[in-house]
């Protein structure tokens, strides 16, 4: 069996279609909203949560069963219904027309899987089991949440600021890399956890000076 290729998608402004209006569909919609997607839900009925999102104009709702025309210009599709025939037709159309599709609880008909994700600010760590066990992926995610705390978000913000500063002030690539390597290899993560911000500033200044910047 060939391996799935892991990547992150930019979904802002893209039409993402969710077929179904139940609890699983609601979870998919809420995650898509975090990505700024243009979300269309096709279902005769909606959960109270989805109905509230419709009232807030955060999603578009087509109140009927899914038809092929609904799929035509979609970038990505989730089918989260309990109707096997509907799921089969959605999968076949999407695969034939090169549309990314995920059929909930049917990995054989999926062209992509959604990983379990740990997020700390700009940091995201994704865990996938290629659809074999979402429950195990969720358990691993819980374990990783204990490893990657909020200090990682703070550290990444610092690294981003330093990188911008270096690009503006230091023309030599090797010097920029040296500074960043020294910061990454330092004990700054531990200092963030201990809230010793004065020491963090010292570490950054030392990385600049010792690299000749």
Write a brief structural summary.
By secondary structure, this protein is α/β, with parallel strands linked by helices. The chain has helices at 23-34, 48-55, 68-71, 84-96, 134-147, 151-169, 173-184, 188-193, 197-210, and strands spanning 15-19, 38-42, 60-62, 76-79, 100-103, 116-120, 123-127. The protein contains nine helices and seven strands.
Structural description of this entry:
This protein is an alpha/beta fold and 213 residues long. It has three domains: 15-114, NAD(P)-binding Rossmann-like Domain (Rossmann fold); 115-147, Double Stranded RNA Binding Domain, CATH 3.30.160; 151-210. Helix content is 48%, strand content 15%. The protein is built from nine helices and seven strands. A five-stranded parallel sheet has the order 3-2-1-4-5, with helices on both faces. Helix 4 links the parallel strand 4 (76-79) and strand 5 (100-103). The longest helix has 19 residues, at 151-169. The mean pLDDT is 94.
């Amino acid at each position: 069996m060939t391996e799935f290729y892991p990547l992150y998608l930019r979904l802002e402004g893209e039409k993402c279609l969710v077929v179904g209006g139940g609890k699983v569909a609601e979870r998919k919609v809420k995650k898509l909203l975090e990505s700024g997607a243009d979300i269309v839900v096709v279902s005769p009925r909606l959960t109270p949560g989805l109905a509230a999102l419709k009232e807030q104009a955060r999603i578009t709702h087509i109140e009927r069963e899914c038809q092929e025309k609904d799929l035509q210009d979609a970038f990505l599709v989730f089918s989260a219904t309990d109707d096997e025939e509907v799921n089969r037709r959605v999968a076949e159309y999407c695969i034939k027309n090169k549309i990314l599709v995920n059929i909930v609880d049917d990995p054989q008909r999926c062209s992509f899987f959604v990983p379990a994700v740990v997020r700390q600010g700009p940091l995201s760590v994704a865990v996938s089991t290629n659809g074999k066990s979402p429950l195990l992926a969720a358990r691993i995610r819980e374990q990783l949440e204990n490893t990657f705390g909020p200090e990682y978000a703070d550290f990444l913000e610092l690294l981003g600021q330093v990188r911008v500063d270096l690009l503006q002030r230091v023309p030599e690539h090797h010097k920029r890399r040296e500074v960043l390597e020294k910061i990454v290899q330092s004990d700054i993560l531990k200092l963030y956890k201990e809230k010793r911000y004065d020491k963090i500033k010292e570490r950054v200044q030392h990385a600049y000076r010792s690299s000749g910047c």
